[in-house]
Amino acid sequence: MSARFFNHELANGLRIVVERMDDVRSSAAGFLCRTGSRDETPDVAGVSHFLEHMCFKGTAHRSATDINIDFDRIGGQPNAFTSHDRTFYYSVTRAADLDKQIDILADMMRSVLPPDEFAMEKKVVLEEIAQSNDRIEHVAFDVLIEELFKGHPLGWPVLGYERTIDPLTRDQMHAYFQSRYAPDNMVLVAAGAVDPDELVALAEKHCDQWQPGASPSRRTVPTLHSGRVTRRLERFNQQVIALTYPAPSGISPLHETGEALAIILGGNNSRFFWAIEQEGLCPHAAAYRLDFSDCGLLILLAQCDPDKAEAVETAMRTEAKRIMTDSVTPAEIQRVRNKRRTSLAVEGESPYHRLVQVMDDVDYRGQPRTVEQRLAAVDAVGRESLAEYFASFPIDGEGLFVSVGPRAA
Amino acid sequence: MSEHTHLQLACGIELAVLHLPQRRAEALDIRVLAGLADEPADRLGLARLVEQTLDKGTQQHDGRGLSDAFDEIGAMTSSWSGREMTGFSGLVLPEFFPRCVELHAEFLRTPTFPADACDVAVELGRQELLTLNDDAQGLCDKFINRQALGPILGRHAAGERETLDAVTRDDLVNFWQKHYGAGRMIVSAAGPLEPQAVAECIERAFAGFGPATQSNRDPRPIEFDAVATHHDKPTEQEQIAIALRGVPVNHDDRPAERLLLGVLGGGMSARLFTEVREKQGLAYWVGAWSENPRGSGLLMVGAATTPQRCQQTYATLLRELERVATDVTDEEVSRALAGFLVRAAVRGDQTRTRCSEQSDDIIHFGRPVPMEEKLDRLRAVTVEQVRDFAARYIAQAPRSVVTLGPEPLTA
């Protein structure tokens, strides 16, 4: 590991990874818990995300109000997110307040899940689910995931369902918390104006007493389904259509090739932009990747006038087939490299962006990558790697087609 | 020595350069003082159509060729249409900054508005209205802005179906010819840049682009309508937005207003978050913010909640607006200040954000304002000033209210 990075592990298994950045004034730090909705059982779907809320709700040393006030006293900008396979709690503050930042974040990781707060926060989570249900793109994504991973824990929404959150008990959450938030299933990550020795000392002070013993992971590799699914929702005006294909995982050597393919097919100045948007078919047509440690997805997505849904689907399929047969040009590949070079330089200025990148690398790859290593991976993308990609992950087949909106079919 | 350089160029452009020697990228931010407020009333949506069509063909490149040229230098570009101006920005590695300026000048000065690109822009504009109609929070913002800012400053970039249908290529060309020119431009740059070299580069690129005389810089008044309206929509949540008159960004009371906004909605211990979400579990999203056209301002609060809790949420928002004038504490103001100081440090680490803020300063203050000067103004605010501001501007002030969802408020 480069001197820019610092790596340490406490006796209880809590790993610490730091990226020291020059010329910045802020520091970003967070606890990664390697748990998410794919680690839940169906009856408690959404517990990981609800637990993320509850970690802000009280500890042995702080009430929910104390946590909020203590963060605000240092201007701490705390936040957290939960995904299918991880939960991340972080804050960004002035470098001088690193000790207070770690004190609060570490305390939150030992939440007492106060029962009165549990009942109140359940209402907030149900409001969040209602908010998500009002957004067609969220609804479409949930349908896509549900159908694609049918029968697998990756198939339910991270927020869970009203039917699973409403009856969820504090005891069920506590059992999940105990099994997943052990230090040997967590990583403390920091980036910015951070002294690694100071961070280790703070971690020893606040986390040394945490008992190891995370439950073994029960994750299984999912089977991806294909076919056609329509969900008619007349309350919306537009149609969201999505065509999904299997793609390399987040740790595959073909990962960066997949990123490049998504940009060439559905980024700015892409094939979709000129063949679909600038033909007036729809205002939003894009290609996204969704990575997990053991699988990946390429999602071709459009939001359109319901009357144009068929034409947009045809155009997306045509472009997907064309990119496999009518080979990607060297100029297209070079443009991707140029854009990635700029974006990596810019991200390198921001402790928050580096925090998230380092967290992602550590979780999936075991080690963080420097900007130079990331650039080398971008430079390695070429027609050969694309050919290898298409041989393993063709995008000219049926895929999973999902259509959500007012159209009947 | 200030890190900002502020220059008036012979071509008419007002230029500010922020010298940040250690950065890896350079940012360019161009503001053309022509926006939604300049649209003819029967052509709403026109400013955005122009913004989106300018780069679809120039005298040197077709649209794809121009996009490729930007990609050749790895430029991260974006554009937006605002109520008083249209913005174009680019972020590049230092060696490509001059080329980034050249390419921006090319599409701003020599667009050809190809007929097919104009037709596509109008068609996509129609479809964008469908997207907006599916965005409950976006729709609520549209309605409260129209109600509280008035029919000119409260326009929405997407326009209206009937006005989009009337737009022709000639309208786009005429809008560009009438409103785009160096005398209406503010340019900001940030990064490891030499100010004089930037000035020469900008002057070279834009010399002779329309009249050099500055124009369209006078503030327009807002037309505040203190009414409550409801918009029916079959959503799961009800959107609530409340607007009150605030102060302009350059007003002496603005620092007190910013801290008051911080007390209400700035952090996790802010009053609205505490009272609406933490104590009653009424909403996932609740917030307070300001809208600031040149020379005026609005204070806004909002929340989204399920219909059966809407009345209680609305009552809580009103209660908090009323009581803040009497019981805001020193501790709350200190916490709000801490939030601003940290956000300033975080923003200070981002070249693109510093560049954009520099443009905003010229718009509102007529000059770039050093970050420390802005922070010192905040540090100087007392709790009495915050209370006084709340008493004068919030407690009993007229309100403009919009709700959107399945049920209207009952009172």
Protein traits:
heterodimer, A: 409 residues, alpha+beta, Cytochrome Bc1 Complex, Chain A, domain 1, six-stranded mixed beta sheet, 15 helices, 11 strands, 19% strand, globular, B: 411 residues, five-stranded mixed beta sheet
| CATH class assignment of the largest domain in chain A | Alpha Beta
- Overall helicity of chain A: 40-55%
CATH topology title of the largest domain in chain B: Cytochrome Bc1 Complex, Chain A, domain 1
Major β-sheet annotation of chain A: 6 strands, mixed
Can you say what the CATH homologous superfamily of the largest domain in chain A is?
Answer: Metalloenzyme, LuxS/M16 peptidase-like
Q: Biggest interface and its residues per chain?
A: A-B, 71 and 73 residues
* SSE arrangement of chain A, N to C: EEEHHEEHHHHHEHEEHHEEHHHHHE
* Strand portion of chain B: 15-25%
| Chain-averaged pLDDT of chain B | 96
Task: Describe this structure as you would to a colleague.
- The complex is a heterodimer of chains A (about 400) and B (about 400).
- In chain A, about 45% of the residues lie in helices and about 20% in strands.
- With about 400 residues, chain A is α+β, with helices and mostly antiparallel strands.
- Chain A has two domains: about 200 residues, Cytochrome Bc1 Complex, Chain A, domain 1 (2-Layer Sandwich); about 130 residues, Cytochrome Bc1 Complex, Chain A, domain 1 (2-Layer Sandwich).
- A six-stranded mixed β-sheet of chain A has the order 1-2-6-3-5-4, sandwiched between helices. A five-stranded mixed β-sheet of chain A has the order 7-11-8-10-9, sandwiched between helices.
- In chain A, a hairpin with a 5-residue loop joins strand 1 and strand 2.
- The radius of gyration of chain A is 22 Å and the shape is globular.
- Chain A starts with a strand and ends with a strand.
- The mean pLDDT of chain A is about 95.
- By secondary structure, chain B is of the alpha+beta class.
- Chain B folds into two domains: about 200 residues, Metalloenzyme, LuxS/M16 peptidase-like (Cytochrome Bc1 Complex, Chain A, domain 1); about 180 residues, Cytochrome Bc1 Complex, Chain A, domain 1, CATH 3.30.830.10.
- Chain B contains 15 helices and eleven strands.
- In chain B, the strands form two sheets. A six-stranded mixed β-sheet of chain B has the order 1-2-6-3-5-4, sandwiched between helices.
- The N and C termini of chain B lie far apart (about 55 Å).
- Chains A and B meet through helix 2, strand 5, helix 4 and helix 12 of A and helix 2, helix 4, helix 10 and helix 12 of B.
